[in-house]
Automatic annotation (TrEMBL):
Protein's name according to its UniProt entry: UPF0102 protein FOY91_01495
SUPFAM superfamilies: Restriction endonuclease-like
GO molecular function ontology, one term from the record: nucleic acid binding
Origin species: Alterirhizorhabdus solaris
Top-level taxon of the source organism: Bacteria
Family statement: Belongs to the UPF0102 family.
Region (Disordered): 1-21
């Protein structure tokens, strides 16, 4: 049996979940339907899968304690992992006429969510 996570880790996970909820709300406000949350694959996890018209976005959400930290929240390695997971999920969530992209939403207190469309062009 695994021991419970340390309080610091537990707090980070709670903050991350709250950020994912805020990101989903942001997407809904902009006409997106949330198809799935926290989808796990052998390649990694996709935080949100969203659809608007014929666009399906596999969304990575990063939550930080301050807006200043957002500039360093995402990197090519993390995006590559999301892209690999999305590749596995494409048959499950998309049809033949859909456009697919990887987006990032950055969340911090006191600032609006920052939505980066087509963050991965690999």
């Amino acid at each position: 049996m695994k021991p419970p996570p340390a309080p610091k880790r537990r707090h980070a996970e709670q903050r991350g979940r709250a950020g994912e909820e805020e990101a989903a709300l942001h997407l809904r406000r902009h006409g997106w339907a949330i198809l799935a949350t926290r989808v796990r694959t052998p390649a990694g996890e996709v935080d949100l899968v969203a659809r608007r018209d014929t666009i399906v976005a596999f969304v990575e959400v990063k939550t930080r304690a301050s807006a200043a930290e957002l500039d360093y929240a995402i990197d090519a390695r993390r995006l590559a992992r999301v892209a690999a997971a999305a590749e596995i999920l494409i048959p499950r969530f998309t049809g033949p006429d859909d456009d697919i992209r990887i987006d990032v939403i950055l969340i911090a207190p006191g600032v609006p969510p920052r939505h980066i469309e087509n963050a991965w062009c690999g």
